[in-house]
Write a structure and sequence with these properties.
78% of the residues lie in helices and 11% in strands. By secondary structure, the protein is α+β, with helices and mostly antiparallel strands. The strands form two sheets. A four-stranded antiparallel sheet has the order 4-5-1-7, covered by helices on one side. Strand 2 and strand 3 form a beta hairpin. Helix 2 packs antiparallel against helix 9, helix 4 packs antiparallel against helix 6 and helix 4 runs antiparallel to helix 8. The two termini are 33 Å apart.
Length: 387
């Protein structure tokens, strides 16, 4: 049963295919006519087409050549392409809709430009305008970038110079305070010293003025002793000594008291001379070490430490190093070499001929397919009318 069904379907398919081929053969005039019409139309269309022109070139984006060998692009290729798409493509698409502009980048520093249209002259003019725009854009970029960087670096240098000046001013203020304290202390010490020196000089002067008086008293006593000794010798030779001894102290006692007085005066004189010598030494020492107090030494040490700190502090060193680095950057920026954006090679234009054979082949194929389609439509209409 299954075999009979399969055989029946096969016979029906075979009959249908035979019927289709029969219909196509019978309608070959329609198919050929359709093919001829489409082929003729494609030939006429291909002959009416004019050749197009492809104008292309490549540009290397300019850069800044630093002293240390570094290169800094004026603009990346991707950024330039984005700008051109926004500002140029729209403009030229509105005015010259037949132009097709293509842009590609290589290593983000080279861009290729291709313009396709029916006019080689228009392509070259449009490409020249784009190149001029890029050249002007990059020239402005280079000037603005250099100026901006110079201003930024100069501003940073000014800030650091202000910090250094402020730092040094603070240290100078501290030094001025210390020097003022030293000056004030010296004045106070000088006043106290002058008072002490005046006191010592007064004591020395008083002692020295007393020495002549003591010397005079000693001289007078010695003269009296000489006279009394002469008188004593005279009395010893007479009987008057006995009478005098009965009424008053003996001359020996008087002479002995005078000698004792002279001894006391001599000892007082020696003490005064010793005191004068001690006071003189003290006065000399006071004058020599007049400004060597502990407080003064401490202030001098603070002043020296402040001076050393001001010249050797880490903060000041760091600020000066930053200033030198920025000054070197400014020098490098001033001395850098600007390389402009330039063409790689020349602007080249190629002629693109119409693809005649492809168009005719497509017309032939579409004519054949359309002819078959028309045959089936025609056959369907006939079958519908017969029923």
């Amino acid at each position: 049963m299954a075999n009979d069904l399969n055989q029946s379907l096969y016979v029906e398919d075979e009959i249908d295919l035979k019927e289709i081929f029969k219909i196509l053969i019978e309608s070959k005039k329609l198919i050929i006519s359709t093919i001829l019409i489409f082929t003729t139309a494609s030939i006429i269309y291909s002959l009416s087409l004019k050749p197009s022109f492809l104008t292309s070139t490549s540009l290397e984006i300019g850069y800044s050549q630093m002293i240390n060998g570094d290169k800094e692009l004026i603009e990346t290729a991707s950024g330039l392409i984005s700008d051109l798409k926004i500002l140029l493509i729209k403009k030229y698409s509105d005015n010259q809709s037949s132009s097709n502009i293509s842009m590609n980048k290589f290593e983000n520093k080279i861009i290729s430009l291709e313009i396709t249209s029916s006019s080689a002259e228009n392509n070259e003019n449009l490409l020249t305008e784009i190149i001029n725009y890029i050249d002007e854009r990059h020239s402005n970029f280079a000037l603005l970038d250099t100026k901006q960087k110079k201003n930024e670096i100069s501003h940073k240098i000014e800030i650091i110079e202000s910090e250094i000046s402020l730092y040094k001013s603070q240290n100078l203020f501290n030094l001025a305070n210390i020097e003022f304290e030293i000056s004030l202390l010296k004045e106070n010490m000088r006043a106290d010293l002058e008072a002490e020196i005046s006191k010592l000089e007064s004591e020395i002067s008083k002692l020295e003025s007393g020495l002549p008086i003591i010397d005079q008293e000693i001289s007078q006593l010695k003269q009296v002793i000489i006279e009394d000794t002469a008188n004593l010798n005279l009395l010893k030779n007479t009987n008057l000594s006995l009478e005098r001894a009965a009424n008053s102290p003996t001359l020996e006692q008087i002479i002995s008291s005078y000698k004792s007085k002279i001894f006391q005066l001599t000892r007082e004189r020696n003490n005064n001379i010793s005191d004068i010598s001690s006071l003189s030494q003290e006065l000399d020492a006071l004058k020599k070490n007049s400004l060597q107090s502990d407080d003064l030494l401490e202030l001098e040490k603070r002043k020296k430490d402040s001076e050393n700190y001001a010249s050797q502090s880490d903060k000041l060193f760091s600020l000066e190093q930053r200033q030198k680095t920025l000054e070197n950057q400014l020098l490098m920026l001033t001395s850098q070499t600007q390389i402009k954006t330039q063409l790689i090679g020349n602007i080249e234009t190629k002629t693109i001929k119409p693809k005649t054979q492809v168009i005719i082949s497509l017309g032939l194929i579409f004519g054949f397919i359309t002819g078959i389609f028309l045959v089936f439509i025609n056959n369907f209409i006939k079958s519908y009318k017969e029923h």
